[in-house]
Amino acid sequence: xxxxxxxxxxxxxxxxxxxxxxxxxxxxxxxxxxxxxxxxxxxxxxxxxxxxxxxxxxxxxxxxxxxxxxxxxxxxxxxxxxxxxxxxxxxxxxxxxxxxxxxxxxxxxxxxxxxxxxxxxxxxxxxxxxxxxxxxxxxxxxxxxxxxxxxxxxxxxxxxxxxxxxxxxxxxxxxxxxxxxxxxxxxxxxxxxxxxxxxxxxxxxxxxxxxxxxxxxxxxxxxxxxxxxxxxxxxxxxxxxxxxxxxxxxxxxxxxxxxxxxxxxxxxxxxxx
Length: 273
Description:
Blueprint (H helix, E strand, L loop, with lengths): L2 H4 L22 E16 L5 E14 L8 H10 L6 H14 L4 E15 L6 E15 L2 E15 L1 H6 L6 E12 L5 H10 L3 E2 L6 H13 L4 H13 L4 E11 L6 E9 L4
Antiparallel strand pairs: 1-2, 2-3, 3-4, 4-5, 5-6, 5-7, 6-8, 8-9
Helix pairs in contact: 2-3
């Protein structure tokens, strides 16, 4: 007999899969998984190349009533396998893989990340950087996946009523425009950012010199918009683009002369018409 075999350690006893136990309460769970986990990702840019950033993920599946728990470590394993370059296609693949590995009928993944875009002042051309919040949201129900892309874009809005009734000046404020779309053809997230910025009273910039400040102030004054105008104008743009099959547009004005925000929302599903 080999001397090594005489001193070999005994094999460890198998560890029970506690999550796989039967649960007697017979209550299915709609969503179970992990949330608020940050992970490095690489995102393709419209200008070429990829941008490295950090995304915050939430990953859920449904849990039938007969199971006690789900396998939390598998969510992180799936995330690790897809961290390098995330596109709408790879994001959908991750959603499908999650549902398959967790043996679930339904699944949900969302990721939000800061996305940085170089932006040049309107008169001097001074280079600055703007950051936007971008999200991919995926749902899988009974084998069918649906993907949404969301952008959150700050803009300036100037009140038409204030301009009309005042002898001079008009109040303006920063506003946050959020666009979430479902599309059946490729598009860049930057395209949604462009739409949001062009439909405010004026867009924001990272760097402005005095002559640039004059230009953006006058631009906003010449282009007053209520919060209702912003969402209607963006919805009109999305209605005219056949790539976008459904959307939700919101705008929140952080009012400068009121102790509240103004808010408006439009949502529409072209395929339900």
